Amino acid sequence: MYSSSLAQIWILLILLHVSCCNSDDRPLVHTKYGPILGKRVRMHQYNPNLQDVMQFLGIPYARAPVKDLRFRPPEKPEKWKIVRNCTHFAPVCPQPLDLPESQPVRPSMKRKWKAMKPLLGSMDEDCLYLNVYHPADVDPENIDKKERYPLAVMVFVHGGDFVHGAGSMYDGSVLASHGTVVVVTVNYRMGILGYLSTTDNSAVGNYALMDQIAALRWVNDNIANFKGDPTRVTLFGPETGAVNINLLTLAPEAAGLFRRAILQGGSAIASWSLSPDPRRFSNLLAENVSCCRPNTTLGVECLRTIPWRDLLAVEISSPNPFKSTFGPIIDGDVVPDNPKTLMRGELFRSYDILVGVTEQDGYKYVEDFPGVDEGIDDEGFRLIIGDFVNQVYPYRENEIQDAVAFMYTNWGEENNRTRRDGVVRMFTEHQVAVPLIILGNLHSNENYETSTYFYTFNHRPSSSPNPPWVEAAHSEDMPFVFGAPLVGLRIYRDSNYTKSEIMLSAAIMTYWTNFAKSGDPNSPIVQKTRFVHERPNRYEEVEWLSYRADNDSDFYMYFGMKPRVPKGYRSQRVAFWVELVPKLLRPKQVRNSESALVKDANELCELLETGHNTGGDGDGAGKKPSSWIPMKSHSDTVRTTCMPFIAIPTRDPSAKDISWPGKDITWVRKKPGNSSELSIVIAVGTSLFFLNVVVFAVCYHRRNNKPIRYSEENAQERVRLKVTDVREVIKALELEDCTIGPNGECQLETTELAECSSKVI
């Protein structure tokens, strides 16, 4: 799966790295910050149909974010005069080297970590570097007539659950050579160093996104010197990398820096895309490294002094396994609002968008379930769905759980294997596909200026380590995007790619690079893979139609050995999540109420009277997820007040503005004036007072107008108080209605006591 894909791409990287020729093939390029030396890689020795590529590795795009620059926006790199040797990769950004000990680890995660660990030995906080790959001999005189010069640029943003990965782990040589494009891969801060936030000016968060924006600014300033066109920049990346890219399409600070985006298995509206409680996680970190201080400014200053290895040694994870810990947040600047709200704006719709999902992206959520290869019985089926719904939809758990179980049951053939397949479909659709379809709907609706495309990757790689019943799983499309099969037959020991897989990889790379060039995956270059087969492949006969939600044209490309362009990706179940579930989430209404306010007040009144929510029957309320889901350590649930969140009212004097050519940027959050805060406090207070009055009135009205039923059946069903309860009631009435005697005792009239006792049944 992911680990195998990663290993294949890395082997490709190593072999291409050592294949450069003598010093005569060392290109010299002048950047805005100084001269750099690269190297030529002769690609034809791996595949005679590939052209040579120039590589420039380890180019700094920002100053090292160390010491006082930790937890701050990136600054422009320092200039240099001596030629900088850029023929080797720079260190990767800090990330955990060992698996967490406080929680179960999925098999795919173990394989992934095993494949990554040897590659992450060179690690340092000074890690903001990028790598450039471009065709060696392309120039305006010899370029294909269908191509444009300068070349389109593709910037890769790696994934890795917001905590691990590196741009240097993905070699862009084959993609650049086959597609005649410039490929850029980027390192950026991750985990604590990339996303820690106190939600005030002390640590604003989203440093990873700021790094990516800084890299894009470097590309815009310098890529022309590498044969690239700064006006045709496309971002592409998988899972959490796709989340970051999606957020950049919504960020005003990134406007004008790129033109198109390819989101592979991730979006900013997925349940796992944003950190749910950054303040709490920051407090837990400070508590674990003895940085508790009176305010956040002092606390963050302390965190800047802690060695990064000590910070990464602290295990902090979300108590909800379907949420991220340290990840992007809505900060009001880089991410100015809720992503779904921003997707209705013009900025998002100004980009060309291509999105997609693998056939069984959700397999990773159930791969460690006991006996999953044989199937999942009915008890396990309901256990998995119950745990998932309890975590994601706790307020209407029972209704949604029943609906989900109904929707994902194969009523024509209900058995352990179909139940297992249903659970995998549920996770694939809810966690990945449905958010991407919502994104596609918002982007394409009445949008005639830019394009929207959707795809599914359905081919199980011949080298997949997954059980035979698993089709294309999470990230198994990545080797095909980077062209590993085109050189794999000659150099991979663990991968025996077939000719059909070489054809599939060539087709995908052509689609991706076409989209980067024109916004249309079908042009300017037609599909040609006769260098693999003597006969033309089926992709030459298929036109990838665009996705449109507003005119019944929701087409998508089906990537496999038999490609096709159907309509309506899993339309019935998508409609279930998009149309039905939001209705189930609405608060229940009391019949015959005359206004929404009275409806809500009635429900609140009943909640106060009965002591439980009216939604659902209460079965399973507060149920804890079962052990098969990787629940987090007990420290996650500890409430902490380590650093009181008292925001400093004045601007942090050490926070710096970044002014890049073409656009002035101030990353520090602006604090509103006291007058607006006072107005908000008054408005909220007035609203709460009015709501209390309404709730009191409704409760009083309901109490005094309840129908009195004297039937024998109802009388038998009344709740009778115990003798001790009678005494407690009498005692309470005595304290409320008694008169003080001469010795300070409470005296109650006998008639009052008798009347009180007679009311107790």
From TrEMBL:
From the UniProt annotation, give the residues forming the signal peptide.
Answer: 1-21
Chief location category: membrane
Q: Fetch the InterPro entries from UniProt.
A: AB_hydrolase_fold, CarbesteraseB, Carboxylesterase_B_CS, Neuroligin/BSAL, Nlgn
What's an example of a GO molecular-function annotation for this chain?
neurexin family protein binding
Query: Transmembrane segments in this chain: where?
Result: 678-700
- What are the record keywords, sorted? Cell adhesion, Cell membrane, Disulfide bond, Glycoprotein, Membrane, Signal, Transmembrane, Transmembrane helix
Topology of the protein relative to the lipid bilayer: Single-pass type I membrane protein
Instruction: Please state where this protein is localized.
Output: Cell membrane
Q: Which terms does the UniProt entry file under GO BP?
A: chemical synaptic transmission; modulation of chemical synaptic transmission; neuron cell-cell adhesion; postsynaptic membrane assembly; presynaptic membrane assembly; synaptic vesicle endocytosis
Carboxylesterase type B domain location is 26-577
The terms describing its cellular component in GO are: cell surface; plasma membrane; presynapse; synapse
Q: Pfam families, per this entry?
A: COesterase (PF00135)
User: This protein's superkingdom?
Assistant: Eukaryota
Into which family does the record put it? Belongs to the type-B carboxylesterase/lipase family.
Q: What is this protein called?
A: Neuroligin-4, X-linked-like isoform X1
Species: Branchiostoma floridae (Florida lancelet)
